[in-house]
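hey so u asked for the seq, here:
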Amino acid sequence: MSSSSQGDNGPVLRSVLAAGELPPRREVPTTRQPVVGLGEYELKYSLAEPVVSAFLDAVAGRLHAQVYDVSHPVAYARTTYLDTDDCVYLGSSGEPISRRVRIRQYAAAVDAAAPPQLTGQSFVEYKQSSAGQRRKIRLPIDDDEVSALLSGGTLSVAGRRALAEEGGLEALRSELTRQPLTPQLTTWYQRRSLLDEPAQIRVTVDTEIGFYRPIEVGGHKQARPLGPALGRMSDCMLEIKYRGRAPRWLTDALSILGEPPEKRLSKYLMGMQAIGRAAAPEDEPATAATTEAESASATPHRCRSVGG
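ran it, structure tokens below
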């Protein structure tokens, strides 16, 4: 399922070169939740590092670092986004409820200079977002389970039990089996996580965000994606997740940021725009200074409905 084995390539993703220009909407039966009441609030910001540092200083007494392995405290996330041939999930970015299906993997390192190593934990996620709220179904999974899900096979007893415990068996199975899904994009970034004492508020800071052609899910053991990044995000991505009403100390700290959260901020959308720019003809000027692969030869992307 590598990018080179996904079948015949479609036309260039011209319609995602400009922000906000998305694939045509398609009415597809779904198990979507109502727009209101997705369960958790999520605020997203794209900010310069000094601004993020000022925010973290303001909440330092309220949050503590979330470290999963004290011997490898520097954490990374590798996310591979799945979509249909005609990019139904990418197109949902312009709908009332944005939807994503992705494989999330983690890596860790002794320090920032050391090579990261995969932790061996993988998760398949189905996420819905709308107007600053989100709902996410998350299933721990191994490589064989990923292959079964993508091929329409049967989950193991443990996999079915995990989905049932998450309360999302029908929703996730529906998304994974309604239409064939293939890897479209892989992102890689360093992640710092902080949590309050009741574990009701979680803050993440993602840095060194890079967008790559999709890896072969289950077949790529090296932590970092192969090949050059097709684009990078120069700012940090700050995300705040919480349930219920935000406490006063949090709203005071958010005022330091000086701007409202970005309701449509999406790594998947930005990454697909980077892929579209990399696949553009050589005589077409690049539109983003952060693109690394402007001169590299690139095959057009699989999402066929997005072509010009």
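Strands lie at 40-47, 63-65, 74-83, 98-109, 117-130, 133-141, 182-196, 201-212, 231-233, 236-242. The first strand starts at residue 40 and ends at 47.
lmk if thats what u needed
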